[in-house]
Amino acid sequence: MKTQSRHLIGLGSGIAAGILVIPVACSPDADKGKKEVRPMNILYIMCDDHSYQTISAYGGGLMDTPNIDRIGDSGIVFTNSFVANSVSAPSRACLLTGKHSHKNGMTDNTKTFDGSQQTFSKLLRQAGYQTAIVGKWHLVSEPTGFDYWNILIGQGEYYNPVFIDNGVKKTVEGYATEVTTDIALDWLENGRDTTKPFCLLLHHKAPHRTWMPDTADLGAFDNADIPLPVNFYDGYEGRPAAAAQEMEIARHMDLVYDLKMADKEGEIHTDTGLEDYGRAMYNRMSPEQKKAWDTYYDPIIEEFKESGLSGKELAEWKYRRYMQDYMSVIRSVDRNVGRVIDYLQENGLWENTIVVYTSDQGFYMGEHGWFDKRFMYEESFRTPMLVHYPGGYQGEIDAFVQNIDHAPTFLEAAGAEIPEDIQGESYLSFLKDGKEPRDGRWREALYYHYYEYPGEHAVRRHYGIRTDRYKLIHFYGDIDSWELYDLKEDPHEMNNLCGDDGYDRIQKKLYKKLVGLQKLYEDTTALKENSR
Q: What domain range is 369 assigned to?
């Protein structure tokens, strides 16, 4: 295999991947030829909209996630993990291709993924891996490059979901997180070829909107202390794009669809157009599921109807109900992650399997008064990422990693060549010894570009750059607005410093770096918008 010459990362820095080494499980007699040398297995667990704020390894204090934390405890917690485009389908395309959205064609959720293009799953198959994907796909076209696929339709349903099992639709009774885990474990136990290394993508629907908990977890956080974010009542001064969005908990979160207030009497009505969908979610449940659901929600609905809440009281009630449901959904995710880890450990796979836990993007837990994602502000731009690498480094890593980096990392771990057109960089050296690649500095800045406007939640198109301290964003389209943040002095991103004389030099320097990244990644659309 030829030495791989890699493209520049960050600004003025570079890295050559060099000769790729096949990692092997630690074994006392491995060097004596008594154990077969083979690439590591790869298990990539990705949830939808899981915020780093609700993973206890990140110290947020909202809830405990002991099983997800087990991955970080035995490996690495990446404290600066980010996405390239914070919305579901584009993020998944970035994962598969190792390229930014403008290069893989999946710029927003309205597009269809071109499955004929190069993906890491296809390259791993060529390298001798058996590949599989289970759970949420959300790319419209059927999966390619997988020996086995069993995916949810679209966003999927929480209760009694419909899966497409290698082309055949099947309704599976149960709760989506539990069912998805069951399918994955069944493939590991009965479906895979044990003579080959495997790469399994385990993609959960949870905790995507509408945050419907498993009946086993209803009420799990009713007595939890859930503080209101300090900027819950953000007025969006100096930030016109933030002021124009439609994702506020107070104004846009639907009582029936999002907060489960589908009363039997039909007295609660909403004007978002989502009420009928909210009632339909309940109707797909089995009688047993409905009984458990009603036992929990009916008293809450009755109390809400009697309360007559309005204004700030209503907004804060909605926030706490949202958080109670969201965290209850995570409780099931964490429990099922534990099931998978237990299986790996009990079957001798933990010592030879790379395990990644992450999300397709971050999510707002009431910061700025919001739910959802999309913006380049920290809560949606940043994602959780915990990685177990057998025999590797243990601790925290604060280097910038991005979801375009998974593809080259998995390829390098498999001993496969990393194609020149992949834009991400392998973080394998961090997994091995916690250090940067020997032959070049790691990236010093991150690039982001969001496209979906007009669209749900009315977040304007924008692109930007983030360094260790500063962030520069340009909102464009029917709006032309630049924003600059000093993340050290203003971690909640409330004070737009663009145009401030004291930051003029910094703004010019960031702009130059932004243009450099746009040229590096060949984002011609953004380069044209810069001159407006």
A: 42-210+325-433
